[in-house]
Write a structure and sequence with these properties.
Blueprint lengths: L1 E6 L7 H8 L5 H9 L24 H8 L10 H8 L6 E13 L2 E6 L4 H14 L5 E7 L2 E6 L10 H4 L14 H16 L2 H8 L7 E9 L11 E4 L2 H10 L3 E3 L11 E5 L2 H7 L3 H25 L2 E10 L2 E8 L20
Parallel strand pairs: 1-9, 1-10, 7-8, 7-9
Antiparallel strand pairs: 2-3, 2-5, 2-6, 4-5, 10-11
Helix pairs in contact: 2-11, 4-9, 10-11
Length: 349
């Protein structure tokens, strides 16, 4: 029988905005799933309440995906070697070094993503490789938005995933740890180098944001990272679950507008549409995406669980530094005494 594991980052909004943003949304199936579900490891009669969580702590969605695929996290979630293999790079010790735009806003240093061509990415990496030649690092851009730096040995630093700092002040999020001083220096040198690069001069001339820095994160060595085949199929709207699926030899399907049951076994669904909308600060897009999810996923999953086509549904909601876990079986769908609550009642405390 099929079991479904659904991961939905940023479903529960901060308490101070949750009521206003969710007002008027029609989410009967999703609200029933949340209300009828029970906490893993709790008494089966215990409801998921707005103030309860599983007690497990993670730093980011990236860390939690590592956990789901059996990848150990040390200082960082070792995303870089998984991504490097996916993007066709050789084994080694890797950091992501993604292209970004930094700009001052009063006392804050804000980070934004940039759109860049493959030709531009190759030219900027070539400039960094020339500058850092002989210093034990080499930059690669196998994908315009995904850059990597291979190092002779893994730096002893702690980093923050790029997704967590988009639109944020990065001053307090720069690498920490024993080797932080050296990598702060690298960070500054890269900014000075990119500032005067011809690619950026041309971008600014046509009104595009310059690629004036890279964001270093997700360090790890290939030999230490071996994602496990803990699922029989994976589907997501984000490339990171696809990378893990490829490394573990699991069939992957691109996210569609409608849930597809697929074959029997364990199915992992990772939907980041709400996180993407919040990163852009677009609450209208957050609402629209969630309403589409209700029709395309929550309603068919509810019906499939109630009819017995799904044996178990496991919903995880990363929110802040916690993950809330909801588990449902067919019998739970008939627990009418667990009354549905508005989504805003589950807001982050």
């Amino acid at each position: 029988m099929k079991n479904v594991h659904l991961l939905i980052p940023d479903l529960f909004l901060p308490k101070d905005i949750a009521s206003g943003v969710t007002k008027g949304l029609d989410l009967p199936a999703l609200e029933k799933l949340l209300a009828r579900g029970v906490l893993i490891g709790s008494d089966p009669s215990t409801e998921l309440s707005p103030s309860t969580s599983s007690g497990r702590t993670v730093e980011a969605l990236e860390n939690y995906l590592c956990e789901l695929f059996g990848v150990k996290c040390a200082a960082d979630a070792p995303i870089a070697p998984v991504g490097a293999a996916f993007d066709g790079l050789a084994a080694g010790c890797w950091l992501r070094a993604d292209p970004v735009h930094l700009h001052l806003d009063q006392s804050r240093m804000l980070l934004n993503e940039v759109s860049i061509s493959g030709v531009e990415a190759a030219a900027l990496c070539a400039g960094m490789n020339e500058y850092f030649s002989g210093q034990g690092m080499q930059f690669f851009a196998p994908h315009p938005q995904r850059w990597y730096v291979r190092t002779d040995k893994l730096p002893r630093i702690r980093t923050v995933p790029l997704a967590q700092v988009i639109g944020e002040d990065v001053r307090a999020e720069l690498p920490g740890g024993e080797d932080a001083g050296r990598w702060h220096g690298v960070f500054n040198e890269i900014q000075m180098l990119l500032h005067s690069h011809p690619v950026n001069e041309a971008r600014e001339a046509r009104g595009a944001s310059p690629v004036n820095s890279v964001w270093l994160w997700g360090g790890g060595c290939s030999g230490d990272v071996a994602p496990q085949k803990n699922y029989d199929s994976v589907s997501s709207d984000d490339v990171l679950p696809e990378m893990f699926a490829a490394a573990a030899g699991i069939p992957f399907a691109v996210w569609s507008g409608q849930w597809r049951a697929g074959s029997e076994g364990r199915q992992l669904l990772v939907w980041t549409g709400l996180r993407t909308a919040l990163q852009r600060g677009d609450l209208a897009a957050w609402r629209a995406a969630l309403q589409d999810f209700e029709a395309g996923y929550a309603q068919p999953l509810w019906q499939a669980l109630r009819s017995g086509k799904i044996g178990r549904l496991h919903i995880d909601v990363p929110c802040g530094t916690n993950v809330r876990h909801v588990r449902l079986s067919r019998g739970d769908t008939w627990a009418f005494w667990r009354r549905a609550k508005p989504l805003s009642r589950y807001s982050m405390m």
